[in-house]
Give the backbone structure.
Amino acid sequence: MKSPVVAGVAAAGLLLAACQTSTGGIATVSSGAVSSPATTTSTALVGVSPPTAAAPNPKVTGTTFDGCASVTDAEATSWGLDLSSKRTTADDNAVGADSVRGCVWDGDKWQVRAYAVNGSITEWGRPSPDFDRKEQVQFGSRQGWLAHGARIPDCTAVVGSEQGLAGVQVIPHRALQLDHTDVCPITQQIMTTIVSRIP
């Protein structure tokens, strides 16, 4: 069985080709200088296991969104994720981890990443042969994009967040890939769940 890291590397390549700036696998868009967003104050979400904050990343300046602080243990468990596998993207060896700030969880069926990244939501409107399906979707009160990989059947949801992007990526394990399981419904469910926590 192919590990989620290997699948993630392949899936990351799909996202890389979909955007204008190469960051090693996570979809971003170069928009020149980006000013740091104002610090937001919010109440900490209850029921979040460590790490409760993403490791700082000086390359992510467009948003204060923190994927590590945005998913409760109960939610992660309901999505089939192993709480003990939670780690920051800085601690993950996946391609593109140096260009994002967030957390990664592994499960029996898939790997889930919730992250902040520099970029623009308008760039997601451009056609890309790397996605066999890409559509604008309403996540709660926010408009965003849902993109299904053409070669590796991963799925990514993105919404604008301050001057950057917040993303959720679900990478299915090999058995689900071979079975052509569509992971976009769970990706959409995860983004819809956390979208109210995205600045």
